[in-house]
Design goal:
- This protein is α/β, with parallel strands linked by helices and about 425 residues long.
- The protein has helices at about 1-20, 40-50, 70-80, 95-110, 120-125, 135-140, 185-190, 210-225, 270-280, 295-305, 325-335, 370-375, 385-400, 410-415, 420-430; strands spanning about 55-65, 85-90, 115-120, 145-150, 170, 175-180, 200, 200-205, 245-260, 285, 310-315, 340-345, 350, 355, 360-365, 380-385, 405.
- The protein has one domain (about 40-434): Endonuclease Chain A (Endonuclease, Chain A, 2-Layer Sandwich), CATH 3.30.870.
- The protein has a 15-stranded mixed β-sheet with strand order 4-3-2-5-6-8-1-9-16-15-14-10-11-12-17, sandwiched between helices. The protein has a two-stranded parallel sheet with strand order 7-13.
- Strand 10 (about 285), helix 10 and strand 11 (about 310-315) form a beta-alpha-beta unit.
- Helix 2 runs antiparallel to helix 9 (about 270-280), helix 9 (about 270-280) packs parallel to helix 10 (about 295-305) and helix 11 (about 325-335) crosses helix 15 (about 420-430).
- It is globular and about 60 Å long.
């Protein structure tokens, strides 16, 4: 009897365990990756950047700058507030009145104990019609400004045939940064007699993206001078609490650098432009002064137009460099035939380098959509994932259409002679070298 009771007890226990077995914690199921077709274009671009080593940062405050007067007013005010250092990297400082005002202010800050470091591209300096000369550099150094030339031109004078530092970066106390398309020159305010007003865009940034720009500048400084700056030079000091008018944010910003001699970075900016175009869902607008895209960028734009994307392009029929405007017109004409909306800007020279996508993200920087910028030079662009900033650039585009003419088949034939159209075709053959 006891044996039977013992058997029943263990049998009950066995069946109870068997019943509870399926209730044990299951292995977590693998979550499938989202279908790219279901993601927004800004999400796709951010995923692409992260895969290629670029980490977008949040909580940035961005001020879009639409004129030279606005840029220099803001920049000078921030320099006056500097307490620790001012670092500058430019393609050139044109030896004119605005540069004189800047250097005078930097000299005053140097006398206050602020460390001032400035760098300019030697080819960029020599290629403008008012370059800084050796005696100018001596006087600036005597005033406490540590100024150096990037890749000085030396015999046999071929070191600048390919690679030039075309970036524009300013970092003040690790708190505020500037980048974009503007150098230091009067014509950003006054224009040029031969082409009229000079239109351009720039950015003022506060937040984590400042450090990304600063690292680029410091790496270039170290490579040129051999000086490794102390860690204290890279600290981010508290940002001011006062919010500037027209400032957007908090915005997510990704800084994409191009370095000619870096295996990872020399193709990244070009490929990021292609990815930006290919992932656009609804609309893409761009303004570019030297619109002679590389083969892959041009193919991406053609495919975007053919798949029905609302592609809008603004180019200037006149410019500061011979041949290039003709090549730009030819490229724009080919895209127009595939469905793109092309605007010819006659309100001066539009030197802005902008692109907006789907009303959700945009880019502003130093890079032109040509072979020189995307295959040769040192460049930097900020990709801004913010609807408000994107809307501001789209609004600029619409406003500038009032000073532009829509390219049509009739406009192409009526406004440009056969000889002009032939020169455009001929200039297009030089696209790989422009």
């Amino acid at each position: 009897m006891k044996a039977l009771q013992l058997f029943q007890k263990y049998a009950a226990l066995f069946f109870l365990c068997a019943a509870l077995l399926p209730l044990r914690a299951a292995e977590p199921a693998e979550i499938p990756a989202p279908d790219p077709a279901s993601l927004r274009s800004d999400s796709l671009l951010q995923r692409y950047l992260v895969r290629h080593g670029v980490q977008p940062t949040d909580s940035n405050r961005v001020r879009l700058i639409f004129s030279g007067h606005e840029k220099f007013e803001l920049l000078f005010a921030d320099i006056r507030r500097a307490r620790h250092y001012v670092h500058l990297e430019y393609f050139n400082f044109r030896n004119d009145s605005i540069a004189s005002l800047l250097f005078r202010l930097l000299g005053e800050k140097a006398r206050e104990g602020v460390k001032v470091r400035a760098m300019f591209d030697d080819f960029g300096n020599k290629s403008n019609n008012r370059p800084l000369k050796p005696h100018h550099l001596d006087s600036l150094r005597a005033a406490g400004i540590d100024i150096v030339r990037f890749d000085p031109i030396r015999f046999p004078f071929v070191n600048h045939v390919f690679h030039r530092d075309h970036r524009k970066i300013v970092v003040i106390d690790g708190r505020t940064a500037y980048t974009g398309g503007m150098n230091i020159a009067d014509y950003y305010i006054e224009g040029l007699p031969e082409i009229g007003p000079w239109r351009d865009m720039h950015l003022r940034i506060e937040g984590p993206a400042v450090q990304d720009l600063h690292r680029i500048l410091l790496d270039t400084w170290e490579g040129e001078t051999g000086e490794v700056l102390p860690q204290s030079e890279c600290l981010r000091y508290p940002a001011p609490t006062v919010r500037l008018p027209q400032e957007t944010g908090p915005a997510r910003v990704a800084i994409v650098d191009r370095r000619a001699h870096d295996k990872r970075l020399r193709k990244l900016l070009r490929r990021t432009f292609v990815e930006t175009i290919e992932t656009a869902r609804d609309s893409l607008t761009l303004i570019n002064p030297y619109f002679t895209p590389t083969r892959k960028v041009r193919r991406a734009l053609k495919q975007a137009a053919e798949r029905g994307l609302k592609l809008k392009i603004m180019v200037s029929p006149n410019g500061d460099i011979p041949v290039t405007p003709n090549a730009s017109l030819y490229t724009a004409r080919q895209l127009m035939k595939r469905g793109a909306e092309v605007w010819l800007f006659y309100g001066g020279f539009h030197h802005s380098k902008t692109m907006t996508v789907d009303g959700t993200h945009c880019t502003v920087g130093s890079a032109n959509l040509n072979s020189r910028s995307l295959r040769c030079d040192y460049e930097v662009n900020a990709f801004i994932f913010d609807r408000e900033a994107t809307a501001q650039i789209d609004s600029l585009f619409r406003d500038d259409c009032r000073q532009s003419k829509l390219m049509t088949h009739e406009v192409w034939k009526e406004d440009f002679s056969r000889w002009k159209r032939f020169r455009c075709w001929l200039a297009n053959l030089l696209t790989p070298f422009l």
